[in-house]
Amino acid sequence: MVCDRCKRVVAEELQKLGYTVHQVNLGEAEVSASEGNPDLEQIREMLESNGFELLDDRKTQLIEKVKLAVIELVREAGESDLHINTSDYIAEKLDLDYNYVSSLFSASEGITIEKYLILQRIELVKELLVYDELSLKEIAYKLGYSSVAHLSNQFKKVTGLTPSHFKKIKSDKRKTLDRVQE
């Protein structure tokens, strides 16, 4: 789950299944059943029918927490003009050694956390370009790029387009946050 709408859908669907929903956060839900334990297979099917998946092992949960931390980091940097060290942020957020988390993430996802961060940043750049409220220079500064040229080069490497060309054609070029790796 990567947004408030996702959390709302999961909560509503769990309630339809008869569960009492105590809380739904990004990547996790706390529920109870009126009788016995929650039926994980029933929950898995509901989640999958809504485009989500049940994360029922620790490794998968940790990978999801890394992804959510990266998304949060990118969004916070984009909103606050703060430039935070990625490895320090993730290590502190997860209270784990960054090297361990990084190697686990790379082995599981097939890309590094840094590459995933770049992909998330480029998606935010696309969003900001579509909104057309900030100049490319302002976007570069806001997201912590050293220059417009650095942003433009990274954007072109990821998308195959220059930011100005993307801005001209902007239709159907953005991905939902859960599809950034594809």
From TrEMBL:
Keyword rRNA-binding: no
Listed InterPro entries: Homeodomain-like_sf, HTH_AraC, HTH_AraC-typ_CS
Transmembrane segments: none
GO molecular function: DNA-binding transcription factor activity; sequence-specific DNA binding
Transcription regulation in keyword set: yes
UniProt name for this protein: Helix-turn-helix protein
Domain HTH araC/xylS-type: 68-169
